[in-house]
Amino acid sequence: MNGAQSLIRTLVDAGVDVCFTNPGTSEMHFVAALDTVPEMRGVLGLSEGVVTGAADGYARIADRPAATLLHLGPGLANGMANLHNARRAHTPMVNIVGDHATYHKQYDALLESDIDAVAGTLNGWVRRCGGAAEVGADADAAVAAAREAPGRIATLILPADVSWGEGGQAGTPVPARPAEPVPDGAVAEVAELLRGAEPVALLIGGHACREEGLRAAAAIGAATGAKVFAETFPRRIERGAGLPNIERLGYLAEQVTYQLDGVRHLVLVGARSPVSFFAYPGKASDLVPEGAAVHSLAGMEQDVVAALTELAAKVAPDTEPPLAAARRPELPSGELTPQNWADVLGALLPEGAIISDEANTSGLLVPGATAGAPRHDVLTLTGGAIGQGMPVAVGAAIAAPDRPVINLQADGSALYTVSALWTQARENLNVTTVLLNNRAYAILRMELQRVGAESSGPKASELFDLSHPDLDFVRIAEGMGVPAGRASTAEELAEQFSRALAEPGPHLIDALVPPLL
Amino acid sequence: MNGAQSLIRTLVDAGVDVCFTNPGTSEMHFVAALDTVPEMRGVLGLSEGVVTGAADGYARIADRPAATLLHLGPGLANGMANLHNARRAHTPMVNIVGDHATYHKQYDALLESDIDAVAGTLNGWVRRCGGAAEVGADADAAVAAAREAPGRIATLILPADVSWGEGGQAGTPVPARPAEPVPDGAVAEVAELLRGAEPVALLIGGHACREEGLRAAAAIGAATGAKVFAETFPRRIERGAGLPNIERLGYLAEQVTYQLDGVRHLVLVGARSPVSFFAYPGKASDLVPEGAAVHSLAGMEQDVVAALTELAAKVAPDTEPPLAAARRPELPSGELTPQNWADVLGALLPEGAIISDEANTSGLLVPGATAGAPRHDVLTLTGGAIGQGMPVAVGAAIAAPDRPVINLQADGSALYTVSALWTQARENLNVTTVLLNNRAYAILRMELQRVGAESSGPKASELFDLSHPDLDFVRIAEGMGVPAGRASTAEELAEQFSRALAEPGPHLIDALVPPLL
User: Fold this and answer.
1) Domain of life here (chains A, B) (predicted)?
2) Are strands B293-298 and B247-248 parallel, antiparallel or unpaired?
3) pLDDT tens digits, residue range B444-456?
4) Using the 8-state DSSP alphabet, how is residue B322 labeled?
5) Nearest Cβ partner of A425 from B24, B117, B469?
């Protein structure tokens, strides 16, 4: 078997059996080898932002990595924004980046570029395959590195001649290093704080935002009076009726200041200390309240759920966590507004839904409207690089074909990776995209004011305006094979949303929701 | 004035008065400052691949750099593939990459990433602005670096607090270092070769592909019997009736081997020695014929046109260069074929057209069909990273609003930066896109065979097939505000092409041309 065949065999044996790809000539032997390993599923994206975002969404739902196959440096670069988002999400992922044959690199052919340097900025694991015989072991090491808690991006650079070279050997899966134990004394120290008189807040992140962690955190809050928050952009947070409703820290510094007001001790549980998303003139970057102390119950690389469970056993042994009651908004009527579209979503959200949330400013009222909806998962924009929502929906739908995936998608962000719609159609994925179309980069209008820029005039405003010409997302979606309709009233949105959920395959609703601000 | 204002003032004073952008919060002061410097034109792209590709196309036609304004590391990364192409084209460009405020970087906010490392892979000029007072001088240095022969990418990283900080001072334009003189003796050495008995070929690139260089090279060829070739992917090559018709080296190694057969001396004039685009098992990477010697008349950083002119004066003092006669194909009829669509183009190409060529396999017969068409410029896919054609058309049309721009665009490449169509509509650019729709990554079908992969089966084939579902480029274009039609016969293509050229603003024709191979 050649290097490519051993690579795919090894990945499958290690539990990686989906490969999102946009290949080129240097990856042709990998592509050919797909037919020799029937367990590996290849999924085509029409640009690499779709490929890497889909792998991110897949792993967030499947709890195991997908592979990507990317074409040389430019392919990697095109996928970098969603790799950045995946890095911030601590998503496990195995990138295979094809490269020129080893002996060809000296010629600096036109597509040559510094793959290693670009991959190195992901702060993950990077290795260059040295020969066909080593590919199997390299791939096993990559999968193990990707799965190491809390999850990271492993990039394997695969020269074309290593791929086509004979002597490939399938590897033997290497167990990922388990999450580290919680440091001695951390639980006792936090328990002591919680028993004290000063106000405490827990800030949970990563795996703590799944049911077990949420229940423990909510019980701790109920028993001790501590506030409990989830990080602003969790990789995956479970919500809905029958689960604790944990508030996320806000995106705006002003919101966080309000949420943490009066807190004297901030306890981090798999989360980072809160900082402002951007700097603003004359405003603080560090959002820990003045005079408050920051403590760590467990770091991301540690077993955050075990830490919370142990802490709950100490301070809330008999406390049942408060759970969200089943309660939906009434189905609203009238022209779409930032509130009523969220109410439509809350009223109709199906059981077991996965929400890929890139609604940005249009989504501010969604958490309230869906808190009592049936149980669902929310996947957020984890690294702030827009263009993540549509590809993440692709990956989530492939990981969970029986669950409805809802992509809440802002218009300004949609065009980065819009060809994800084509992959949704090609793979017949159950993704319903609600395109929140306010015909603007609304967030930038707001940010222009927030940064205190004085002299804003027509040229600046023009750069936030997406209405010259209007983007017609119905046609764009149809052009990519996705049935689509337009909704300008709550009734139309409700009718189209219900129909989209009832039919298999992807749908898009161009929802004309005016800007919130 | 603040740093941002001084930056824009300085750029304009240095001759950079178009800025392609997709800004974010950290660039808000730059955006606000646009209204204080009326000479600077801001052009919005909906993703950064459009922004950087447009800046490339602009400079190739305007012969001076445009600026880009990009949002942090992810914005730069999204633009990297077309920056790679621009690097290979030696296109002058000034990237402004916004960054977090200097004091904010320590917090590793979510959008933080290693901008310097990624920008560093462009092998150009990179500087991080240290303070508002230095921005003007930094910008002048960036423009001078960008314009240094043969042209390169200068990246200025602009922290938000430098942008909003007071004390900005407009700089004083710095002259770009002129092209280096041709080394002593080089002209005489090549003249000697040309007078000798052994077969010689000239390979010209860069600025030598403009009229003056072409005429000198063609005269040399006519007087001495030397073959003359242009590099495979020139930044800009002038063609058509009344100009020498210089053949480009082929994309496929087999073509180059045929073209250079028998050559004993290969003389490089602002071009690189030919190498295979990719490596193939058992085939040579270096395409210089065995036993042939490689000589340099002038390097890219030297005055290649002066070198050719001086050489022509020595070896062809009385020779008029052979020029292409005005001759167009007959307007063909019938179902579209790889030949007849090119004939439609040749029959109808308007005077002074600019062709942005990303037709890939579908474009193989275009050079022959257009050789005797009215004079035009061709902008090629200079770095091999697909997704360049549509954005380059945007930039070319902004640089030359009175010239018709024709984008020959392969379907497989189109979805990378398809939102360039929206910018074409917004700016009402005279771009006619001929979308060569063969419903496949046809080049990869060919490459799969060429790399000698044995076991290709249905899973591999599926990854090159764009027909499940068909991409409907008419709807996609209309969704972005560009009028569009579909052509399946030569008559339809001719009719729609003529109409598109007659009407102002952008148009797209979805031309159903079957694969060449």
Assistant:
1) Bacteria
2) unpaired
3) 888 888 887 766 7
4) P
5) B469
